[in-house]
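Worked example

This section walks through a single chain of length 291. The input is the sequence exactly as stored; nothing has been trimmed or padded.
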Amino acid sequence: MKFEVKKVFVFLPLIAALAACGGGGSDGESVNTNQGTTGGASTGGSTGGATGGSASGSTPLKETPAGSSGSVSAPFAVTPTSRYLLVGLGVNDYALVQTGVAQQADGAVVGIDDKTLTGDVAVQSISGDATFAMGRWAQGFSTARAAGTQITRSEPGFHYIAFNRATFPSTGNYECDAGTFTAPTRTMGLGDIIGTAIGTGSVSFSPSGATMKATILVRANGDQSSTTASNTFPLSSPDSAVKTANFSMLGDGMLLALGAAQGNRVRLVVGYQVSVKNADYRGIATFTCAP
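Given that input, the structure is written out below as tokens.
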């Protein structure tokens, strides 16, 4: 699969022991919640552009919005094969849901297995239906990290998505919608604590598996930057995901996975990190893709 960008970095697949562990792994590898291994992913470099976020030279945005935001069309219906992605500063978890998902009446998820949000909580960028639930823990006490974290409006919080297992068709090219995004938050560097994101996605299927591609553009710090990623080899199992080499480090990176969507569609799940003016912004996007 080819695509054009200013820079292209290709990371060869590492056929590693991730299949045995039910969660994430080192960068450049496939990630698998319960079976099989796949190839790595290739990434495109960032491109600068027009303004976004705070105006250039103005005071950076130091706090995220107050309260909760967003809604769902239906509660998430957890199944034995549901998976989740949880990302933030020092957190990069992709795994099978083991004990359950705790969802409030407004659609906000406040617990995935032993990762919880308690106290005076706020969840932003809430979205979902029966096949997925997504948002960002914006305020409260989180156990996403082992030591626990008190999240305030001046901190990035943690982005989550829980989603159901996809069924791969034998062949087909799928076009994706404009996507749904958690507002990206700064995990490294200086500048706006929160930005905005847009993007595109595509998925195709062959007898060998699924090929995914996503581009994410983040606006922050009076500027914008984008990155593109696709899997080098077809994803053979819907229980797998692929990561680019920098997803858990500094700079641009992505995790790409596929889940179920309503109707004759699939869900492209993208965990992303984009560097804008020497600050790294993380978030999650999901695209609904139809043949």
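What to look for: Confidence is low (pLDDT under 50) at residues 1-29, 34-39, 46-53.
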